[in-house]
Amino acid sequence: MGVTQRGGPPPGDPGLPADATLMEAAKAAHACTLCAPHLPLGPRPIHQLHPEARLLITSQAPGTKAHLSGIPFEDASGERLRDWLGLDRDRFFDPRQVAILPMSMCYPGRLPRGGDAPPRPECAPLWHPRILPRLGNVRLRLLVGAHAIRFVLGPGLPLAERVARYGDSLPTHFPLPHPSWRTLVWAKRNPWFDTQVIPALRREVSRALAG
Ligand code: SF4
Questions:
Q1: How many domains does the chain have?
Q2: What is the atom index within ligand 1 of the atom nearest the CA of 44?
Q3: What range defines the domain where residue 104 resides?
Q4: Top mutation candidate among 122, 127, 128, 131 for ligand 1, by most atoms within 8 Å of CB
Q5: 122 assigned to some structural domain
Q6: Residue 122: CB within 6 Å of ligand 1?
Q7: What share of residues in the chain are helix, strand, coil (percent, to 5)?
Q8: pLDDT at 35
Q9: Is residue 5 part of a domain?
Q10: pLDDT band at residue 114, thresholds of 50, 70 and 90?
Q11: Is residue 203 domain-resident?
Q12: What does the alpha-carbon distance between residue 30 and residue 45 come to, in Å, rounded to a whole number?
């Protein structure tokens, strides 16, 4: 039988007082080392948070470039996502407008057969309940990638169907594929993504950030 933890945060979790502010929660998340043994490049939690943010991006996990720079979506996927949203870099990287909280705040590594490993399963269950209630001004949450969609909306529908039925989740959530190069192939097979989903996405993002 393994060791059972009775009360208190697990090892590597910096904990958080109940009355902590968002910025205190963000600082605590930065100090998290909970799943260090599983992280090939070590812990480096990456997020973008401010209490005034009106758009929240729940993404998958940082890649190696983001891990090295400490900046989320500072790569080709980020360029693609900014294009989808109709946002320039200044607005995208303004934490007073856009918050970014991935399913895994640290780079989770690669799968043995290639491709990025899935987000660390410890991260979102631990940190999202601590951070999301402190983001009180968010009007729209983008769920970027199958992991975020499943975690927030629940299992059931395939990714393409979730995205095609984006209207079911509005006005609070908008499901999207991960903006990796693979999605270019996927979008060619699903032309409604460019002709219908992207224009609707830009409208919703603009609505969320207005005023
Ligand atoms: S992935 Fe999340 S839970 Fe794991 S060490 Fe990084 S911040 Fe902590």
A1: 1
A2: 6
A3: 22-27+37-209
A4: 122
A5: yes
A6: yes
A7: 40, 10, 50
A8: 94
A9: no
A10: confident
A11: yes
A12: 5
